[in-house]
Amino acid sequence: MVADMPGSPRTLVVMRHAKAEQAGPTDFERELAERGRQDGAAAGGWLAARGILPDVALVSAATRARQTFTSVAQGAQWTLEPTLDRGLYAADPDTALDLVRSLGDDVSTVVVIGHNPTMAYLATILDDGEGDAAVGMTGAFPTSAVAVFTYDGTWGDLAGGGARVTAYHVGRA
């Protein structure tokens, strides 16, 4: 989906990676557990049922986040190639928000897949407190958690409290 004009409604999806194995050669290289693959696909199916088709996917380059995107994309039947970002692995919420702010005005829908606590903090920071769906988001942001936001400005102007939670879901197979 391409935005009609710079101030047209935009969709931002913030997702924590799916369930990973407890160990790997390094933390960065930990792979998804089988449950994580299934939960990721379930989250993708949920996103597809809501008509979410991203223009851009910003994904941590860590193995479990890349594999989460693959599972979500399969479940949603997306053909999009992700933009992998090593910085999202250890990013703080401001850094993750800066990545979103750097998007062009031609992008109307973006999916960000990363790690906690960053994804939970990012979702909390963005929330304007007005959406009914935010109630489900309080507390934990478990693996495969997905928060969907709408935003009525340019990405470059996105600020804390500037987006409305329209849906929240935890992908489970």
Automatic annotation (TrEMBL):
| Matching Gene3D superfamilies | Phosphoglycerate mutase-like
Task: Tell me which SUPFAM superfamilies the record gives.
Answer: Phosphoglycerate mutase-like (SSF53254)
Q: Which InterPro entries match?
A: His_Pase_superF_clade-1, His_PPase_superfam
Q: What is this protein called?
A: Phosphohistidine phosphatase
